[in-house]
Structure formats: structure tokens, C-alpha cells
Amino acid sequence: MLRIGAPLSLSGRYARFGEQAARGLAAWRSLADGAELVVEDDRSDPDTLERVLRDLAGRCDLLLGPYSAGLARRAGRVAVDEGLLLWNHGGSGGPAFPGHVVPVLTPAYRYAEPFVRHLVRSGDLRPLWIVHGKGRFAREVALGAQLQAQVSGLAVTARRPREPSWHLFSAGSFEEDVAAVTGIEVPGAVCAVAAGVRAFGGAVPDPRGVYGVAQWFPGNGPDPAIGCGEREFIAAYGAPPDYPAVQAAAAAIIAVHCAELAGGTGREELWQAAAGLRTTTLYGAFALDPGTGMQIGHRTVLTRWEPDGPVSFARG
């Protein structure tokens, strides 16, 4: 039986999402055969994460990464130093660590693609004001939004426009995105990365009309070629999940599948299996660029808040 280890933030700054990932893994485990799950609290702290990860590496066959871009970068450096392979479900920004980290997430620089494409397809080419938070993830999302907008013919500004009409895109932590869209009158469309999770609806006075960016949203993916289906996963989860839960489950599904393809759990064998894999899970498409180690198959989903909650609006 394969033992899968996962350091997750069950307390601290990222607990909101780490708990979702842990619950998603538990739901997956209830549907899967031949796997044991070991989850340890990294307390949202880089030093604790490193200690927990090294401990899990000594007693687990497969290792999942933590939630958050910053913790995932720290985990990637540990993987390189220790000769490990990590399945990254919780950090889409920063270096790829090819040969040591297998990402299932759409990279941060591609987050804004569905929102920009929606604006272009609608013909609404008002200037786009891009704001971002303090972290590296936020800067990468914002830079990707800027480049995508410029290529698509949208004027971009990093300061509040003087024009009477414009759009807003916010990339930051959950708290930073909430602050960016609260108490501001935007004449055009508003999109925030944080609006892609259901907690956003209770954090702002009125979320209606706000677009979000989600790594996953129910009903948008193809039928999975490997692992459990969407309906059975949601039933096992017990409630409509947000994408941190589903992307963690997808990482476990892909890790186990690659171990079966490789016939073992050695780092090089697992990497070769992952690099050559083209498949789908309940989370969506999976494909790596074997040279850069970047995820090239998966795409983000654009959502929009309606009176009854968020709905899927368009796919990137």
C-alpha cells in the first residue's frame, strides 16, 4: 500500500485553504484503493514546513506539496536539496524545479487569461487597471495579466485611470483582494483572484457581478481518464468544494497513477512518468513541458458572482 504524505496548513495564515486541501484528500482517500494518507500541520510557517516535509519524506512513498506559493517555493528547494519529488497542488508561482516538482496548477502568469479574453470577446476595450499585493505570486499574476492585455489590445495602467470608464483586475492574497474591491466604484468589470472561492461572498458587502479566477469549478472539466469522477468526489466531500480541495485530490490521483506507470516510487522514474503523461482528472487536463517542468495542460476558469452565488462564466 502506498503511503502519501502531505504537509498542509491546518493552522495559521493559510488554514482556510489548507483545511480544504486536507478535506479534499480525505474525500479522495475514501474513494481510492491501495493508498494511506498522512497529513501533518505545517502551521503556515516555512521553517515548520521544512521540518515536517523532511519527516514525511522518511516515512512516505509519495509526497504532496503544501498550500501557498511561498511555502511551495520553500518545499521545492527542499526537494532539490534532498533529491525528492513533490506533487505541487498548492503553489502556482515561482520557479518550476523540473525533475523535482510536478505541478498540476495553471501557472500564475496565466491566471488572468480567461478574464482578458472575455473582455476582448465582448468588445469592451476600456483600459484595465491592474493592482496586486505584496507577494511574488501576486506580482506574477499581475505581470501575466499585463502581458495578456497588451497582446490583446487592451490599454493597461498600474495607477487608477483618469479616464471616466475602466476595468479592474486585482491579484493578491485573499485579504488583499477583498480590500482592493471593497468600497470602490468601478465603472467597468471587476475581477479578483480571491473571488474564485466561495468564502469571498461573505467577506465583501456585495459580491454580485464580481468576476473570479478559479483553478477549478464544477461542471467545467472533461470526463476524467484517471481517478474518481466529479459527482462522486463532491458526494464524498459532503458539500460544494472550492478548488484547493479538488487540486489536492488531483495531485494525489496523478501521483498514484504515475507510481503505477513507473512500477515504483523512485524520483527519476516518477518524473519520467509524469513528464510523458497526457491525461485528465476531475480537476481538468494534465500535461507538462518536460524541459521547463511547467504545467501546460490545465487552464483556469472565469467565474462571476450572481445573487445565488458564483457561477462558471467562461474558460480560458
The CATH architecture name of the largest domain reads 3-Layer(aba) Sandwich
Strand content: 15-25%
The count of β-strands is 14
Shape designation: globular
Could you tell me the CATH topology label of the largest domain.
Rossmann fold
- How far from one another are the termini? 38 Å
Please trace the helix and strand order, writing H or E for each element.
Answer: EHEHEHEEHEHEEHEHEHHHEEEE
Structural class: alpha/beta
- What order do the strands of the largest sheet run in, or round the barrel if closed? 7-6-8-9-10-13-14
Bin the helical content. Answer: 25-40%
Q: Compute the number of structural domains.
A: 2
The averaged pLDDT comes out at 95
Low-confidence stretches: none
CATH 4th-level superfamily of the largest domain? Response regulator
Q: Which CATH class of the largest domain?
A: Alpha Beta
